[in-house]
Every structure is written in structure tokens, then in C-alpha cells.
Specification:
- It is a single chain.
- By secondary structure, the protein is α+β, with helices and mostly antiparallel strands.
- The protein is about 40% helix and about 15% strand.
- The protein has 4 domains: about 120 residues; about 150 residues, no CATH class; about 120 residues; about 130 residues, no CATH class.
- It has 20 helices and 20 strands.
- Strands 1, 2, 3, 4, 5, 6 and 7 form a 7-stranded antiparallel sheet that branches. Strands 8, 9, 10, 11, 12 and 13 form a 6-stranded antiparallel sheet that branches. A 3-stranded antiparallel sheet has the order 14-16-17.
- Strand 4 and strand 5 form a beta hairpin.
- The N and C termini lie far apart (about 60 Å).
- Its main location: cytoplasm.
- It holds the Pfam family AceK_regulatory.
């Protein structure tokens, strides 16, 4: 039971120290995000990527600092439970009128779970559900969004003023031209539609920065219609700004905020208000993924886990071994009704997989910190995850016992009489259709005359997307390592995304070679390799037998991506990256771009 009186000064001091620890974290997080504007203005692209990568570490560093302070100054871990009851209540009181209460509650959970032993760490001591509402929090510094009320005739003037209001330091190649193009694109979306009295543009006050782009994000209101839109602002070859495209609709915004892209940097005083606005643009996107896209990954994990527990309460299906070819490094399971997969590192690997658990974890961290260019799935990493025992298929339990026994614990962990399966370490990813299964479905349909035309088109699309995915990763200095179809998946939007990271390498660490010519007839007839192979040597022409056994796949691949079998393609990109060049991989189709002189080429 919670205390009726708050009579422990120590509890208040601990709560305030914890609040101060969070405030320090968010102050530093926000300052780094705000500096993205200057890096964009000065075209400091490598600095932008470095900051995106380093900011991911901020949260754990601040949690560690808070834990160390609480133990040193207050011996927090030695305090009785009566004091911890009061700490939480004081902390709630300290969040009244706070501008990031949901993030502070998650910070409290992170610190508390590091101090309290699991046996004492129960729902009374953490925020299982939010205690403070995030509704209608008003920022002090600047409004969450700005509203503009143009007429049809003044729309270009309004767009130009909107761009000016972001106060980018530098000059546009031709801001008026860009404003007129955007206005024409908007009016094209409302062709032969009467502009109502409430016609307006609403745009979030902060620009969204990522890599070489800055994005205006907002929506157009007209009568009962709400149209999401985004405007990418880029530098041209002479360093001048230009609006590169006008993106409209939920699908375009979903691509921009994809789980397979790096996190945005945006200066937000009230992050929950940004999330609420973005959710109005993308109602199908979980709030957890929006927090992730904004760089607030810990909050994303918190919300994801709440959604997961809620789903368990309202479903009855059972966890099973995931469909598809079983991996040599990862054991994968899923819940059919839940759109994610759970991945556990096995305890041992076959001889051809020369790796360790720690090396695999480092590969996943590499992807987390790297620019994922829309082609590598983000992962949520959890420790000691509890599942209801009766929701697991017996075959899955045996699979974990066989291949990852160190990661499995079965028992009544909470002492509530309910048996649990506890997985010690797990990665969670968005579920996709494995590309090998998708291709097999296409092969099956090709054999049916009434479906052959559609199957041929979907097969070609999948093969083209597969090659595009590899080339996008190459542009970002990533070699996927294992390029088999089974390691790629198809998203709901038809994009091919890579999701198996245990053999991933930086492109610049690899040595791409042509297979040497046979020295003699004996070499030519031999089934063995007659040439030396280093640990990081890659022979692109050897990809062909593993990938192109099917004639239809081979035809599509060779028509669009034959260069992937040529060592020269890989060598040229390695040299380009080593020379410091950074190619653009934009989160929208080239056909959507406006035509510009001196525009950045699209990779």
C-alpha cells in the first residue's frame, strides 16, 4: 500500500535528484538536436552523421550518472521499501507542469531498475502506466506548430513566408521559384476542389534534420480534409538551399519516418506535442515508432512494451517458431497476431559461422548507430523479457532449450503463482515477408496462366528492389555480408529491407576482388578454390550461383543489377567513400523531385 503521508525528507531529496538527472539528460539531448540546424547550414555532413550516432548514447550515460549519484549521496539501494513508495509519489509531484513528463517517468524506471533488486522491483515502484498526462502541454519557447491562412491567389506568398520563418542562415538558389512550385503542387492536389473558409497550412515549428536534408513537416486543412505533407530542403552544388520535392499523403510520410531510417534531429520543447501532431499525419504508425524516429528510443521501447502487454491481454494465439528458413546465428519466433518478430542469439554456431555472441551484438549496435538509408530494419533490444508460459508452443520452448539454453529461464519470477518464460536477451523487429518466401509464391503463381502476368510483375519488382536495397547500403558504406534472399524482407509498402546483421561489414573494411584465372586445366576442373582468400576478401562474381538459379530471377537481375556481380562496382564505391564523399539516399522517389540547376544527384 502507498503511504498516506509523505514524511521522509530523504525520499524527496532522492526524487528531486532523479528529476535533476533527467533534466540534465534532456537539456543535453535538446542542445545536440538544436545544433543540427548549424550543421545543415554549413554543410557539415560528416558532423551531422557523427552527432546522430553519438546522441544515441546520451541516455545510458545520463542514467549511469544518476545511479552513481543516488548511491553515493543517498545510498539509495539500501533504503527500505517505505521510502521508495514515497520517492515515486514525490517524483510524480515534481512532474506537475513539467514539459517532458512521459520521458521523465521512463528515466525514473531506468534508474530504479538499476538500483533495486528484481525481487523488490514491482509495479508499485515503477511507472507501468503513465501517471502524468501529456495532453495540452504548452511550450514556453515557441509554439509546437505554426498556422498560415492563404487564399488561392496568395498561396505562393504564404509558402515563401513559411520558409522564411524557419530562419535558415544562408541563401536559397531561388526561394520564390520554390514557393511557386510548392503552391502549384498543393493546388494540384486540390484541383477542382473549393478552398473552404478554414483552408490553412499547419507546420511544426522545428525543421527535421537527417543526413544532408532538412524537412518541413505539416498538414493542409481544407474543410473536412487533412492532407499530410513534407518539404525536403537540400543544398545544391553551390551550397544554396532549394526545396527538392513536395511529398503528400500518409504513405509518403510513412516512408520519411520509416523504421529503416536513421533518427531525426529536431529541437522539441514538448516532444509529446510533436508526437501527437505526427500521429495525426500517420494514424497507423504506433506512437512508439514515432518516438523512435525522433531519437527518443528509450521512450519508444517503453511504449512498445506497454502496447505488447496490452496486446497479450486481448489475444489468445501462441508464440511459435517463425516461418521461413532457420538461421544459423539467430533463433526467431513470433506471435501471429502481433506484427513483430523476436530474435535470440543462439549459444553456439555451426563451424562456417566464425563469430561470438558479443560480436553479433556489436553488429546490431553498428546498425543502430549507422545511417540505415531505409534499407536496414531498426531493432528494439530488451533484457529479461517475461512471457506467459501457456502462450508458448511446446516446440518453441524445446527449440530455445536446444539452441539457446543460457537465454531461457522458466519459473514463477514474480511470486504470483503464474509460470513465466523469461528470455534473457532479445531483439525485436518489425515483421516482414522474407524475400525467399515471396519469390517462391511468385514462382508458384507463374505456373498458373491466369496469374502469370501479375506474378511476373511482382517478381521483377522484388528483384529490382533487392538490388536497390544493396546499392543504397553500399552508398552508406555497408556491405551486407550474407546476400541470400532469406536475409531480406518485403515491407507493407513494397520496400525490400535487410534484417540479418551477423555478417555485416563496413564496405571500406572489405577487399573486393575478381576471381583469378585458373593457372592450368587442373585448376579449372577442380572443385576447390585454387587461390588464396583473406578474411575480408569478397568475390562479387561468386554471388551468381547462389542468387540467380531461377531463370526469371536471373533475367530481372541481369537487366537491372548486373553491376553487383562486378568487383569494379564495389571497388569504385569503396574508393569514393575513402575519399570522403557521401552520397545521397533520399526517402522519396526520384520522380517526385523538382527540376533544379546544380541539384544534388540522386543515387
Amino acid at each position: 500500500m502507498f503511504p498516506q503521508r509523505l514524511d521522509s525528507p530523504l525520499a524527496y531529496d532522492i526524487a528531486r535528484a532523479m528529476r535533476d538527472g533527467f533534466d540534465r539528460h534532456y537539456r543535453l539531448f535538446r542542445a545536440e538536436s538544436a545544433r543540427a540546424k548549424h550543421r545543415f547550414e554549413t554543410a557539415d555532413w560528416h558532423g551531422q552523421q557523427r552527432a546522430q550516432r553519438e546522441r544515441i548514447e546520451f541516455y545510458d550515460l545520463r542514467v549511469g550518472e544518476a545511479v552513481a549519484r543516488l548511491e553515493k549521496e543517498f545510498k539509495a539501494g539500501e533504503q527500505p521499501m517505505e521510502v521508495w513508495h514515497q520517492i515515486k509519489l514525490h517524483f510524480i509531484g515534481l512532474l506537475v507542469d513539467h514539459h517532458q513528463p512521459e520521458l521523465a517517468e521512463t528515466f525514473f524506471n531506468s534508474v530504479t531498475t538499476k538500483i533495486l533488486h528484481r525481487a523488490y522491483f514491482q509495479n508499485d515502484f515503477i511507472f507501468v502506466r503513465p501517471a502524468i498526462s501529456t495532453e495540452y502541454i504548452e511550450p514556453r519557447d515557441a509554439p509546437t506548430y505554426r498556422a498560415y491562412y492563404p487564399e488561392r491567389e496568395t498561396l505562393a506568398d504564404t509558402v515563401e513566408r513559411m520558409l522564411e520563418d524557419y530562419a535558415l542562415q544562408g541563401r536559397y538558389a531561388d526561394r520564390r521559384r520554390d514557393a511557386e512550385r510548392v503552391a502549384a503542387a498543393i493546388l494540384g492536389r486540390f484541383h477542382q476542389v473549393k478552398l473552404r473558409a478554414n483552408f490553412q497550412l499547419q507546420v511544426l515549428s522545428g525543421l527535421f534534420y537527417r543526413n544532408k536534408g532538412a524537412y518541413v513537416v505539416g498538414k493542409i486543412n481544407n474543410g473536412f480534409i487533412e492532407m499530410p505533407f513534407a518539404l525536403p530542403i537540400l543544398h545544391d552544388a553551390e551550397g544554396r538551399f532549394h526545396v527538392d520535392a513536395a511529398l503528400f499523403g500518409e504513405e509518403d510520410l510513412q516512408m520519411l519516418f520509416s523504421f529503416a531510417r536513421a533518427y531525426f534531429m529536431v529541437d522539441m520543447e514538448v516532444p509529446s506535442a510533436y508526437v501527437q501532431f505526427l500521429r495525426s499525419l500517420m494514424p497507423r504508425k504506433p506512437r512508439a515508432e514515432i518516438y523512435n524516429a525522433l531519437g527518443l528510443a528509450k521512450q519508444g521501447k517503453t511504449l512498445f512494451y506497454r502496447d505488447f502487454l496490452y496486446h497479450l491481454n486481448y489475444s489468445t494465439d501462441r508464440f511459435r517458431i517463425a516461418p521461413g528458413i532457420k538461421g544459423m546465428v539467430m533463433l526467431v519466433f513470433d506471435l501471429p497476431s502481433f506484427p513483430y518478430v523476436f530474435k535470440v542469439i543462439k549459444d553456439f554456431f555451426p563451424p562456417q559461422k566464425d563469430t561470438t555472441r558479443e560480436q553479433v551484438k556489436r553488429k546490431y549496435l553498428l546498425v543502430k548507430q549507422h545511417d540505415r538509408v531505409g534499407r536496414m530494419a531498426d531493432t528494439l533490444e530488451y533484457s529479461d523479457v517475461g512471457f506467459p508460459f501457456d502462450r508458448f508452443e511446446p516446440e518453441l520452448i524445446e527449440e530455445i532449450r536446444k539452441f539457446a539454453p543460457s537465454q531461457l529461464e522458466i519459473g514463477d519470477r514474480d511470486g504470483n503463482g503464474e509460470m513465466e518464460i523469461v528470455v534473457k536477451h532479445v531483439y525485436i523487429e518489425r515483421r516482414m515477408i522474407p524475400l525467399n518466401l515471396f519469390l517462391q509464391e511468385s514462382f508458384d503463381l507463374l505456373a498458373q496462366p491466369e496469374h502469370a502476368r501479375r506474378a511476373s510483375k511482382q517478381l521483377e519488382h522484388a528483384v529490382i528492389e533487392y538490388g536497390n536495397a544493396i546499392k543504397d547500403m553500399v552508398a552508406a558504406n555497408i556491405f551486407p555480408g550474407d546476400m541470400l534472399w532469406k536475409n531480406f524482407g518485403l515491407t507493407r509498402g513494397g520496400k525490400v529491407v535487410f534484417y540479418d546483421y551477423d555478417e555485416i561489414e563496413y564496405l571500406t573494411d572489405c577487399n573486393f576482388r575478381k576471381v583469378p584465372a585458373p593457372r592450368n586445366e587442373e585448376d579449372e576442373m577442380s572443385g576447390e578454390v585454387w587461390y588464396s582468400v583473406g578474411p575480408k576478401d569478397v568475390f562479387p562474381e561468386t554471388f551468381e550461383p547462389f542468387l540467380l538459379g531461377n531463370p526469371a530471377v536471373r533475367e530481372a537481375f541481369m537487366a537491372h543489377h548486373a553491376d553487383l556481380l562486378d568487383a569494379a562496382f564495389w571497388q569504385s564505391h569503396k574508393q569514393r567513400i575513402q575519399a570522403g564523399q557521401m552520397l545521397d539516399v533520399f526517402p522519396y522517389d526520384e520522380s517526385l523531385r523538382f527540376k533544379h540547376d546544380n541539384a544534388t544527384p540522386y543515387f
